[in-house]
Write a structure and sequence with these properties.
The chain has ten helices and eight strands. α5 packs parallel to α10. The chain is 50% helix and 13% strand. The strands form two sheets. Strands 5-4-1-6-7-8 form a six-stranded parallel beta sheet, with helices on both faces. With 227 residues, it is of the alpha/beta class.
């Protein structure tokens, strides 16, 4: 039975892909970098910003990484009007999972500043007991982010589940030796995630919560039978 649920944020908990695309495109224009396509940006969502910039702008100078990060943050954290919202069923679903005793955590390509901001705006600061951003540990798909969360929560890898919408999430889970659950409603297709052997594929946050609830109830039945 899983004890720890580790959620990706953008594309899994929050529908923020359109805002990420708009802010990265504007940051590139401000600094006279090549025009970035929607498809190219959606492809790298989930990575840390330095890793994303190097893929989006091959040969980008090292001294341009920080200005790009700052311009992106300027727009994403304030000046861009593109709306973001929780996916349907997230608020109710997280409450159910918390009530069932799951330990909830976040592993994201966001910065610590970005994590703190979305925790404050959503009121989820007390829901997730651990979180890691790409600027304070290694970027996905390196397993360090998950390994640090496992160490902080004291949960063994076999009792953890990584939930995400990109191949980077599923590859990170595989690298860390934890199960992965792939959601289809984010930025990557299920076909891109399947090579990393997710234990389950779902098409909505509510479906994911139902799948976990059924596993929880099945485990309770087994425990009663074996008591």
């Amino acid at each position: 039975m899983y004890k720890l649920l580790i959620f990706d944020w953008d594309g899994t908990v929050m529908d923020s892909a359109a805002r990420i695309v708009a802010c990265l495109q504007q940051a590139a224009r401000d600094l006279e970098q090549p025009e970035l396509t929607d498809a190219a940006i959606r492809d790298i969502i989930g990575l840390g910003l330095p890793e994303a910039f190097r893929i989006l702008i091959p040969g980008i100078a090292d001294d341009m990484i920080e200005p790009m990060r700052q311009r992106y943050g300027h727009y994403f954290l304030g000046d861009d009007p593109t709306p973001t919202a929780l996916f349907p069923g997230v608020r109710e679903g997280l409450k159910k999972l918390q009530q069932q005793g799951y330990v909830l955590a976040v592993a994201t390509g966001k910065s610590r500043r970005g994590i703190d901001r979305v925790f404050a705006s959503t009121g989820f600061g007390d829901v997730f007991v651990a979180s890691r951003g790409a600027d304070e540990t290694a970027s996905k798909p390196d397993p360090l982010m998950i390994n640090e969360i496992l160490a902080e929560t004291g949960v063994a890898a076999e009792h953890a589940l990584m939930i995400g919408d990109t191949e980077y999430d599923m590859e990170m889970a595989l690298n860390a030796g934890v199960d992965g659950l792939a959601v289809s409603y984010g930025v990557h297709t299920l076909e891109r995630m399947q090579p990393f052997s997710p234990v389950q594929e779902v098409h909505s946050f509510t479906e994911m919560v139902s799948w976990l609830e059924n596993r929880y109830l099945d485990a309770e039945v087994v425990a009663e039978v074996n008591a």
